Amino acid sequence: MLKFFFVLALLFAYASCRSVEEAKLRYQNTIRTASEAVEARGCLAHVCFALDTSGSVTKQQFFYGRDFILDITAILGNDRRTKFAAGQYGRRTYKIASMTGDVATFNTEVGFSPYRHDSQTSVGSGIVFCHSQLRRARKKAADANIVNKMVVIGDGRNTLGGDPIRRANNFRRKVGGEISTVSIGYPGKEGERILSEVAGENGGVFTVDDYDELSEKVEDLVAEICGISLDL
């Protein structure tokens, strides 16, 4: 009987590992397909990411958010006109990178951005950082049709600072851009409400907790930013 249960345990472990590997393979295929679509159809955009670095998200969840940024920029960077900026928010804002078209340097700075485990969270400070980055980039842009997109990544918990919803509405009014939110961690009802209202009527609200969800949400967010179908 002991041997039987040992074999079952091995089979379960094998199935679990295989499931993870299959999810990773699907994710890699998503990245490749989305990259080919952007290269073929173009994606003229300025994108700023605001990433939660407070203690209400775990280190693993922070890494999911950080990897999400790296994968989105790897895809959108296939259009060399697209530019990116990123900052962290916790008890204050930490700049990761100012708006740039240098994808390799941007991804290096994002990849080395640390998990700070701040004791408080000001979602609004992350929004203000991206508002400033996108406003300046819009003023310098040669093409008036460029998409100005903010992506707020976190659990929506706001324990410090001003009203993130008011600041999100201010960004939409003054810059004319849109916001998508990516839920990581365990936001609860209040966090979900804040993420939804920050995104507004036209922004997407995405949830990322594992590789299966990551694959689908990357595809959806790229299609939303670029306004294109990813089916070639």
From TrEMBL:
Signal peptide segment: 1-17
Species per Swiss-Prot/TrEMBL record: Gracilariopsis chorda
Protein name as catalogued: VWFA domain-containing protein
Superkingdom of the organism of origin: Eukaryota
Stretches assigned to the VWFA domain: 46-225
Family matches, as PROSITE patterns: VWFA (PS50234)
Keyword field: Signal
SUPFAM superfamilies: vWA-like
